[in-house]
Amino acid sequence: MTLTLQIKARMFSLFSLISLIMIPVICKQDWQVQYSSMMKCALKGSAIHLSGSYKHPNYLTVTERFWIVNPIKDKEPVNLLNHPDYSGRVQYSPDKEQTCVLKLSNVTHEDEGMYCLKIVAKEDKYLFFPGIDLKVTELRVEIPEEVVEGESSVLVCKTTCNLSDKTNFTWYKNSKSLSESIDSYQLLLQSVSSDDSGNYSCAVRDQKHLLSPAVTLSVRYPPKSVSVSISPSGEIVEGDSVTLSCSSDSNPPALNFSWFKENQNSAVGSGQSFIISSFNSSHSGRYYCEAQNKHGSQRSASVSVTSAERGQTAVLYAAAGIGAALICICIIIVVIKTISRKTGDAGGKSSISKQEENISTAVTDQTSAKPPKTADPNDLVYASITHSRPREQQRAGDEDEVQYATVQHHRNTRNTTAEAECQYGNTASAGSNTEKAEDSDVIYSSIKYA
């Protein structure tokens, strides 16, 4: 009997213990909280969304729900809406099927931490930990330490955390977008050339405003475009100093230069410049240089270096002097011809004046040759003569000019001869006295120049 009682007592204790253990489990089974993810990676400067959905027991009445960051035991957490470090950057989306969504904009590295959902009911407060672990990263481009022309190279757009498996990237060279078909976080350059050198950056395709810092890709290649320049240029006189300079395009810059003269087996000099201090005929020939760096070498085309003898130089100077003298002579001839032409124009005007005088004299003679009138020995005869000059000789703006000539005509007592002489102005015949006007006729001539 005693044994039976002891067994029943032990069984009751066991059932009581099991009941005490199961009661909290039964109560907690009515709470269900699920976060969108347990880890979130965000780009610095971007905007993110953190989501949490929940189900609560039917006997509870929810009054408030909000997000907190980095909860501390025995310390009341602060709603992010009221947190001074998140002012103006936090928004809660409207409740939908008991879901609380946090939108955090302009994410910074200081925002990293654990974000948890807290629900306040009339009966109690509930904090659901752990929450979402937020990491903040930036984009950066990694390139190989050395890229040699002709080889292949891979550029990688890296982050400190995994953004998403569906993240697409955009690549830029010198701030210009490359092909849209390239959406991987890796950029493959096959058979690299010097044209591939430049500044490369990357961005997430849906956040192109958040570019990574640009990284310079410098492609290494052997010397190319090697050439030689001569100073001084032109004819070289014996005894002058001559400098040959070698230039090339290479990366890294060529440091080793060798100089050669055609038809000679060994180098005649080294260094980027080759100087011949006192040039003579033995130095004449064709020269070329060879530039070299650690990736290869290349030679230039040959250039001809010759000297002009002093006798030839003197001939050139003499020829130049003769040419200058001929030019001066031509200039003098042109000046003389110009002066002669102007003098000829002046002479032409003088001859025209003489012709006008001859015409006036002829008219006077013709008038005096007429038989004298018996009616009145002192009759006056007026003659109007119009003289036309070529229009090109008439000065612009000239007005009509009228000149008068007084002609005294003397007849002897026999009336057999008449002598007349015409002058411009009031003149008398050379062989008569001017006072004997009673025996003469006076003729006035009016000459008009048109």
TrEMBL record:
Residues spanning the signal sequence: 1-28
Transmembrane segments: 314-336
Annotated Polar residues bias: 350-369, 414-434
Record flagged with keyword Transmembrane: yes
One Pfam entry name: Ig_2
Region (Disordered): 344-450
InterPro entries per UniProt: Ig-like_dom, Ig_sub, Ig_sub2
Record keyword Transmembrane helix present: yes
Superkingdom of this protein's organism: Eukaryota
Residue span(s) of domain Ig-like: 130-218, 223-304
Alphabetical keyword list: Membrane, Signal, Transmembrane, Transmembrane helix
Protein name stated in the entry: B-cell receptor CD22-like isoform X1
Species: Cyprinus carpio (Common carp)
Origin organism lineage: Eukaryota, Metazoa, Chordata, Craniata, Vertebrata
Encoding gene (name): LOC109064279
